[in-house]
Amino acid sequence: MNASIAPPTARPAADQAPQLRTLLLTDLCDSTALVERIGDVAAAALFREHDRLVLALQQQWHGRLIDRSDGLLLLFERPIDGLGFALDYTRGLRDLGAAHQVELKARSGLHVGEVLTWRNSEEAVRVGAKPLEVEGLAKPMAGRLMATARPGQILLSAVAEPLAHRSARELGERGLGLLWKSYGRWRFKGVPEAQEIFEVGEPGIAPLRAPPATPKAWRDIPLWRRPAALAAEVAVLAVLGLGLWWATRPQPAIAFANRDWVVVADLRNLTGNHAYDDAVETVLRIALEQSRHVNVVADARVDETLQGMGLDPAKATLDRNVASEIAVRDGVRAVLLPTVADVGGQLKVTLEVVDPATQATVFTETATGRGPEAMVNAVGEASDALRQRLGEALASVQASSAPLDRATTANLDALRAYGLGQAAYATQDLDAAEQHFRQALALDPGFAMARIGLSRIAYTRTDVPAALSELSLALRDTSRLTDRERLYAKAQLAQLRLDRDALEQWQALSKLYPDFHVAAFNTANLLRFANRYRPMRDYARQATARQAVTRPAAWHYLGIADAALGDAATARRDFDAARKAGFPPVFIEPALLEAAQRHPDKALALLPPTNRLPPPMALEHRMARMTIAADAGRWPEAKRVADELAASTREPRQAFEWAARAAVLAVRQHDASPTRLRADAEALLNQAAVALPQTVGRTRESVAAAALYAGYVAAGWGDEAAVRRAVDATRPVVAQSPFNVLANFVALTQARLALQQGDAARARQLLQPHQSEDALLLTRYWQARADGRPTAAPAPASAATRLRAYGEWAAERPPVLEALLPLSGRK
Questions:
Q1: Pair 265, 318: CB distance under 8 Å
Q2: Superfamily of domain 260-384 in the CATH hierarchy
Q3: CB of 321 closer than 8 Å to CB of 353
Q4: Where are the alpha helices (DSSP H) in 8-78?
Q5: What are phi and psi of 563, to 5 degrees?
Q6: Residue that wins the pLDDT comparison between 217 and 10
Q7: Which residues contact 273 (CB under 8 A, 6 or more apart)?
Q8: pTM score above 0.70
């Protein structure tokens, strides 16, 4: 069509506001020569794969493709999304080229700026116009960066680099390994001001070399650095250099960035009053932990590093030298040396920031007050000033700094007792920790953080009612808690009660404080109960960060997620990493991994003798032995353990006692008489119905799962009344549960009954809402039955399916055997 008669495009309105967007421009290098070299047919196949790669990355990183030819123009809401696309595109091109035995590289330019966007009319699009137009100075700037880059290089503007760098942790472990380089200020043809440019890339993939100067882009070299001027300057500098350096030598500096870490050294107490020893450090940690800019390495992580240095944590002194070595080993940016002294009758608190690489003092902050009662506020004042010196915005400091004398306590002895309780809890000396926390509360009954300490002790002892009581008391007056501790207490309370929003509370806390790894770990824990293994893996990986106190347990949880997702090799490496990090080798999941791969002897060998374990853990180990034996066809052994479990759990109370009763019923389906089986199912259902109103949290969900399993078994012989009782008894729990697992179990129970009654359509209707990846494995089996597909077992013998079956091990789910053994093999 003649261009002169094409319909006009829609232009932006004059008053349309520009929008701040991230622009990524790429150019596929030497694409024309590539087509000539490999031919049209091969090139067409290659570019089809290239287009699929672009589409997948565009969806993954939420990009909007504006234009394409040999290159791409994309818009993103966030710089980190644009960077993620560019990194994956660079790597994807490398892999795609290797598969076709050609070299594929692209130049990339990333910039953040204001752009105008508008849609062309439908008539214009039909004759070849783009659906969406983008204009603005940001577009040529991204183009200049792209054109300047070397093949395979990603260049960023000075606007995009800090925004992307700050969010690099969102890229996971790869983000921590990225290299960032500045190439100084450059002049671009047509751009009036010089621009600083940066490169980011992965070692071994990115060039990581300064781009070459061209007629359109060149380094902005100051006049005094040009060759003609340098010769004259050298003589002057040689004469004045030493004196000038001595007169103007800079103070040491430290490149502290957002969310960097500090090691807090031991207090230097120059007052002679030992009551300050633990109190000052306790208040300082609480003050700094309110920040989302500065992170404090936990005592447990410091002790682990001390052990790696061959030192006894109980005897080692964290002075400048030792604390600096810890920081260097753990990749920590700064060391903080606190000092308290009595100067002329006033208490002086000093915080000294040290560069661990050189052990030089970078700066100090001080605050004073009169008398011991002023210590808390003096520490708060000094820590607020320190946070600003380390780069945190004043508004952020003011917004997150609760008055410490109220959020903690003004009582020096109570603070010291609380600090001692924290130290005792870190070593799992629960009796001593409880004594110290109660002493703190005796001195200040409103000391809410001591209440939280008592709740953690009660939870560790599996005394959920006591833990709930202490948390409820701590939250009576939320002004007595810092913001982070208040959110933590609320999330912990929701988790113990398993409120509907428990998972959302932990996710929100983890996003608000990304380096509060306890929040990430607890999010992973709840996602496990929700059968959501992919996001569980992401949060568990976040909690394995180098400085995380959760690192050992998080590696273990990462192994659980990887196993449930079918990656046995990675799961085994995760469990090994957990053990090397100090996680105790008494948990059953490594054994379940071996059982899933049909190595029963190896699995059983990984389970320690139960007489060495606490009662709840010993019970779970016996369940694991019974399940593994039954899965391996060792029915006499499985039946013997089942009888032992049945005898020891006649009056179940804890979560795994209810799970054990259900697992025993799963074994007895194999060879028990119909009369015995019906009696056992009815007894379990009766007990669960009575217990449900009296239980909370995880135990409540376990009781509901046991009741539903009794109904599920009864559905096998068409007992409609038992199924109705199980569903009615558990309905309030299912409605309140934060997870979809119990609702899924209800559907399975009712679908089994429907099929027993010959109503396949009803069964399909019941199962239809439970088709996601998070659905219970049993759903696949009953869906196949409802669809009329022949199958001998709920769980086909594929490796991935067996891994998923064992991955679903939990007290709140159907027994693992139900998804492993063929129903046709049961008598």
A1: yes
A2: ABC-type transport auxiliary lipoprotein component (3.40.50.10610)
A3: no
A4: 31-38, 40-60
A5: -65, -45
A6: 217
A7: 372
A8: no
